[in-house]
Amino acid sequence: DAPLSTAEFLTRQEVLKRRSRRAKQLATCYKAHYWALMEELKDKHKEYYWMYGKSPYKEEDEEENEVGNDGNCRKREVAGGNEEEVLKTIEIRRCEVTGCKAKAMALTKYCHAHILSDSKQKLYRGCSYCIKSTQTGPILCCKPVLRSTVPLLCSTHMQVAEKHLIRGLKRAGLNIYSTKKLAPKFHILVTEFVRQIQTKRRAALKATVAKVQIDEE
Q1: Cα separation of 131 and 148, whole Å?
Q2: Which of 80, 136, 174, 185 could form a disulfide with 169 if both were Cys (CB 3.0 to 4.6 A apart)?
Q3: Across all residues in the chain, what is the average pLDDT?
Q4: pTM
Q5: What range(s) does the KANL2-like probable zinc-finger domain occupy (predicted)?
Q6: Contact 89/73 with Cβ under 8 angstroms?
Q7: Using one digit for the tens of pLDDT, what is the confidence trace for 110-166?
């Protein structure tokens, strides 16, 4: 750009070349910044996973590690034998549900299994899969699932729902082995749902007619 810095006018080709070169330089800067952020994210995730996830250190003496109502502490010896850095105490908050010894998630007092007990949390909802139907109403799975999950099912019941969907599609004449590889057309799903509803209505009608005939006899 030095020879063109004093130019009053530029040709179209010169402008396009300069813009292309600057765009490539900017993209290089963005890529470098992106990967730097990715490395920082890995370090943060590793630290979070170590603190709240799968740390191999366990409390040997609960009486020594207990600190008030805030949770437990664990002590770790530092390699090297330096007396000034012999022990490091890291506070670990436990889940407040009675009988649960799991570590609480960050910024909350509950573990992942009991996170729905926190009335202030907005990230999780219960799995909406119906395990059993009773006279008082359906019994749902209610395992914690992210609100953004569609459909709102845990991993176990997501697989069950996919199996049911595959069976329904086979009945409609569409043979697939995985719902992830092929998205079924909407009209096929509607046809299958209508067929199932009509089957239930016919069965209910037959049961009603049979009951009326028995009463008449």
Answers
A1: 22
A2: 174
A3: 76
A4: 0.45
A5: 96-158
A6: yes
A7: 988 899 999 889 999 999 998 888 888 888 999 999 998 888 999 899 888 888 877
